[in-house]
C-alpha cells in the first residue's frame, strides 16, 4: 500500500483498501493482508502532547465506523483479511491504546485480534532527525500475547512490523500450530537511532520474514505501507514467502499494489515433519535463558 498522508481522510484510505481487495478478489484471492496502521499515516513519527491531539488516528469499536465499508465489501466478496489499525478501547473502566491487527474470516466472522508486543522507538522525542519514532509514547505493549487462529485454510498467526525482527514471535506461534503468518509493517527508510545504509532496511526486512518462514515451516504474508508519507520515506518490499524460505511474490512499487500467490498449504508439512519437527529435535532443557532473561 502506498503512502497515506496526514490530510488523507480515513474514508478515502478505506476506499483504496477496498479497491485493492476487489483487485485481489478478481485474481481469485481468498485472503488479503493489509499493512500495519493501514487507515492513517504513520503518526508515531510526529510529536503530540495530548490524546486530544492524536486520538483522531485511533479507531473505537470493531469494526469502527471507518472500517465498516471494508468489512461489508469483504464479506460480500467472501474474502478474509488481516487489517492493522490504532485501537482505542476502554477495558476495566480504563482507556487503553494499542497498535493492533484484526483477522476477519471470509464470512465476516472476527477470528482473532493481536496487539503489538515489540514497540520500537522511544516514549520521548529524540530530536535527532526531522521525524521521530514514538510508538512507546502512543501505544501500550500488547496484552494478548502471541496466539493462532483456526481458519478455513489452516491455523493463522499474526504479528506487526517490529515483531518480525524477533524470532521468538514466530516460534511461540509455530508451537501453537501456525501454518501461515500474516503481518503488516511501516518501516521508515531512514534509521534515526543509528546511521546505517538504507539498503540494510530492505535486507533486514527480507532476512526476518524469510528466516521466520523457513525456521517455522510456515507461509509469511507481509504487507508494507510504503512510499513517502508527507515526504517521510518508508520501505516497500511486501512479500509472500513460502515455508521453504523462498519469496514467491513481491511488490515492485511504493504505491498501492496487489501481489498474489496460490499458496500450497501442504508445502510446510515436510519441513515441520523433518528438519523442524519440534517434538523430535528441540531441546528445551538448554533454552532456559530465552525466557528467564
Ligand atoms: N517500524 C520499524 C520496524 O521495526 C524499526 C521500526 C526499523 C526498528 C528499523 C528498528 C530498525 O520495521 C515499526 N513500525 O515497527
Automatic annotation (TrEMBL):
CN hydrolase domain ranges (all copies): 1-267
Coiled coil: none
Keywords: Hydrolase, Plasmid
SUPFAM superfamilies associated with the record: Carbon-nitrogen hydrolase (SSF56317)
UniProt cross-references to PROSITE patterns, sorted A to Z: CN_HYDROLASE
Molecular function GO labels: hydrolase activity, acting on carbon-nitrogen (but not peptide) bonds, in linear amides
Pfam families per UniProt: CN_hydrolase
InterPro entries according to UniProt: Aliph_Amidase/BUP, C-N_Hydrolase, C-N_Hydrolase_sf
Name recorded for this polypeptide: N-carbamoyl-D-amino-acid hydrolase
